[in-house]
Amino acid sequence: MQGKYKALWLNKNKYLEVIDQTKLPFEYETKVLKTTDEIVKAIKDMTVRGAGVIGSVAAFGIYTACLEVDNYDELKLRAKQIRESRPTAVNLMWAVDLMMDKLKDSTDLVNDALKFAIKLNDDEACESQKIAEYGCDIIEDILKKKNKSKINILTHCNAGWLAVIDEGTALAPIYEAKKRGIDVHVWVDETRPRNQGASLTAWELTQSGINHTIIADNTGGHLMQDGQVDMVITGADRVSAGGDVANKIGTYLKALAAKDNNVPFYVAIPASTFDFDIIDGVKEIPIELRSEDEVKYIKGVDKNGKIKEVLITPKNSPAINYGFDVTPARLITGLITNKGICRADFDEIRLKFT
Amino acid sequence: MQGKYKALWLNKNKYLEVIDQTKLPFEYETKVLKTTDEIVKAIKDMTVRGAGVIGSVAAFGIYTACLEVDNYDELKLRAKQIRESRPTAVNLMWAVDLMMDKLKDSTDLVNDALKFAIKLNDDEACESQKIAEYGCDIIEDILKKKNKSKINILTHCNAGWLAVIDEGTALAPIYEAKKRGIDVHVWVDETRPRNQGASLTAWELTQSGINHTIIADNTGGHLMQDGQVDMVITGADRVSAGGDVANKIGTYLKALAAKDNNVPFYVAIPASTFDFDIIDGVKEIPIELRSEDEVKYIKGVDKNGKIKEVLITPKNSPAINYGFDVTPARLITGLITNKGICRADFDEIRLKFT
Fold this sequence. Notes:
The structure is a homodimer.
Chain A: E1 8-10, E2 16-19, E3 30-33, H1 36-44, H2 51-66, H3 72-83, H4 90-103, H5 109-146, E4 150-155, H6 172-179, E5 183-189, H7 196-207, E6 211-215, H8 220-225, E7 231-234, E8 238-240, E9 245-248, H9 251-260, E10 265-269, E11 274-275, H10 281-284, E12 289-290, H11 293-296, E13 297-301, E14 307-311, E15 321-322, E16 324-327, E17 334-337, E18 340-342, H12 346-353
Parallel strand pairs in A: 4-5, 4-7, 5-6, 7-10, 8-11, 10-17
Antiparallel strand pairs in A: 1-2, 2-3, 8-9, 9-16, 12-15, 13-14, 17-18
């Protein structure tokens, strides 16, 4: 593993090294995480974020913890610390539990943990590669049907290699398209209020040499009316048994516009994103309410190159900050998964994934 | 006329005084405009903005010019200067032409210009008042139908008293509702990239004592799914013969969400907003392309209370900035005009307005 096109890697001293995502896109800095405390802090303060990446950091976190302990019981305490570092991150708990289960009879914690963490990471990378290939087949189909040589893809938030090992979910088919020599251009939704599009996705695509243009979240509808969008691909945080998609707030509005303009709307996910306990996604998936300060304040660099936070609203006007919305299955053309393309439909999802 | 609830007024020395809207919501400052050059500069640098307000400033601008000239021919040169200060502002040209036409036989330019400017301003105020009343009747109807006592209205951009004399267009029914004792709460779309909602609308509603909450533009869809929006009211820059509405970019996405959730979607306009030469709004209305810097940079106040501009994207990522989009008539519940409520429909519009 190496630096520039990955969110995390093992450095030459076999410590976990990660990109500090809180500084992007203004500064590229990495952090070496040598202790359990440093792992926990990196997850808590969002040095690392994105479902897949947090899972990988947690797995390497258990390996890091093994460097500090003598036996499994001591390890359990540190595992608990990591597991509780971000309460809503399902992937984090899953990765910690999997690692701890595999290590329970180990006689060589450090080496076994390293081996299992690398394996978990490789499995995720393999899923991402499958999503890349299945998704890119769709890109080729669309170009063939339209008899065009250049594809314009709109995406929302960040679901690339900064979020999911190895090349992300929503952006994976785009990276694959570049490999296959397809002329690809990405409309990057700014993604207010945390601006993951304008900061992380735009930065990531720049690093990967992908043509892109940042747009205000308000702009996608007009672009679709004007024929400037050939398809939409987003990631997802949770998908119901019938294919309703919880993703970053605003995804639903883009899905409505895509439907209204006959633009294919795809959601790229590993199979682990399904939550089969959820039947009606719109009614049942709880929507996280985050701090109003994420709406009222914004971070950027001033003319001296210093990172500054500024207030952009009247100080006393209240704001509300829902983190996600749910896009009903009826608006989704298909799900791009590591097991192939699947319609957002109860029966087809059940047949393929249970 | 007075300061706090108006965008402009005549001060005690009979000079035009305006709120400097470039400083809002961070600083409340006014400017006295004593010369034609100052009038032109205020329009050019967006000290004043909003269709109606620019028209009023232009009318008082002609009066201001009269203070500097001896005869109608000299006045014509200054009128030309004002008329050309913002090329796309239809209302500006209309107001200058109307004033100049009325003054052409005047023997007392200063006093006549003052009289005509006040008349033009009063006529606009009267239109705004009619929109307020017709719009508020709809608010009362919705509350009655839902058997509720509190109304939640979502608005996009700024179409209040900072934009249109006297109480605006989209916000006029809201001010009227407050007068009638209705419990009204406004969801204020931030309105990227120029943030007219988060800055101007939120500030204006604060001054007027109206309950409101600022939201990212991405949020309205979820709020509608969740039953938290009873109606949407926006303004418009231009309306086609059949009721297609050109308004601030992102309006179309809110109209789609309103339709999908059976939320009434109204557009408040004076009759002068119709452009009967436009048949298909989506295809025919040209969309202004503005500077990418409005997407890439943002203004706010730092922790020392100083207004600062910061870069919020990677420096070299391109951005694109369409100023408006067009909402097709089929998504619009009705037009709230100074001549009453009208469906967004060719025949009804023709009967009522031509």
